[in-house]
Amino acid sequence: MHPSSFDKMAAFRRDYLSGRENEALTILDLGSQDINGSYRPLFEGKAWRYLGIDMAAGENVDIVLADPYAWHELEPSSADVLISGQTFEHTEYFWLTMQQIARVLKPNAICCILAPSSGPEHQYPVDCWRVYPDGFRAVARYAGLETVECWTQWQDLPQYDEESNKWHDSVLVARKPAT
To answer: E strands of the chain, at which residues?
Structure first.
C-alpha cells in the first residue's frame, strides 16, 4: 500500500469515526491481505472489532471469501463500517461486489473505498479498472448507497514520492440508508 492511501484512510477514520472509539463497531476491511501494508493499525484496539476479508488466506486475513460476488460467510446487516483500498481495480465486476458491501452494512453504516484513477497496470491477479468520482457515485447508487463524499487526488502532493502520487486515488465515502 502506498503512503497516500494509508493517509487517506487515516483521514476517513479521523473525519467519520472520531468520538466513536468506545462504541462496539464491527469494521470489515475488504482486500485486507497484507502484501505491502495494512489499515489494521488505524482500526484495531478500543472497542472496535476489525476483521480482514479477502479472497485468499494470508497475513491480516480473518475471513476468506469463496466468491467475491456472494459473501455467504458474512451475515446481512452485520457491519458498522467497511473499508477497502486498492482492491476494486483488481475486481472484475466490482459493481457486484458493491452490492455485497451494501448487503453486509447495517442501516446507517458507512463505507470508505479507495481505488486508483491512474497508474500503470499491476496485475494481482488481474488489473481491470481505474475509477473516477462519477464512476464511484454511479456504483454506489447502483448498490443503493448514498454518496457522502467522493473525490480524486488529481495533483501530485509534495509529501509523497512518485510511487505514491502516480495512482491519483479516488475516494468514496457512502452510507447505507436507514430503510
So the answer is: 26-30, 49-54, 63-64, 79-85, 105-116, 146-152, 169-175
At 55-109, the pLDDT tens digits run 999 999 999 999 999 999 999 999 999 999 999 998 899 999 999 999 999 999 9
Q: What domains, with CATH codes, occur in the chain?
A: 3-175 (3.40.50.150)
The helix or strand, by DSSP H or E, that contains position 12, with its residue range, turns out to be helix 3-12
Distance, in Å, from the CA atom of 33 to the CA atom of 62, rounded to the nearest integer, reads: 9
From the list 98, 106, 32, 102, the residue with the least C-alpha distance to 62 is 32
pTM of the model: 0.95
